[in-house]
User: Fold this.
Amino acid sequence: MLFDRESVRRRVAGLGAQISWDYRGKSLLLVAVLKGAEVFHADLGRVIDAEVETSYDFMAVGSYGRATRSSGEVRILKDLDESLEGRDILLVEDIVDSGLTLHYIRRHLLARAPRSLKVAALLDKPSSRAVEVDADYVGFAIPDRFVVGYGMDYAERYRNLPDIHILLSPDERR
Ligand code: IMP
Assistant:
């Protein structure tokens, strides 16, 4: 186990407090990148102050399938329902790894003329970057290991685990 549910809860509450302060008096569109960020998005939304008028939207991008490395090719599987023009957007991601996904999505959303676009990522693997891109709010920086649980999967498994775990290789399991 890398982070238990209580550590995650505390860190997400901290991010919520920071985001509430930064967006006080504004309205915020909280965009989840499905499927991995679904759990983080749901928890983060509930720790943002009621004074920040918050709406939700969802987009889905192609995943790695069974691989544990990004191919660099990102496909939009589901686009947003809301217009972004003139709005403050907070994109909610599970992990920034190579950064290729975030780099692509940012460009895609900026083309729709939001007033601001920031990124909240629960986890960051800073040593794995292929492109220069960073989240504005980061839950935890982690080493370059594959993790599952709290919404994150390996081949669609383990998303429902309440804690965050490192996926061990067959050698490490022996
Ligand atoms: P990137 O394009 O390499 O930055 O990868 C971003 C996406 O890959 C994340 O939003 C995740 O969905 C997935 N991903 C990257 N690392 C992991 C991991 O350790 N566990 C599960 N999914 C991951």
In short: Residues 139 and 145 are 16 Å apart (CA to CA).
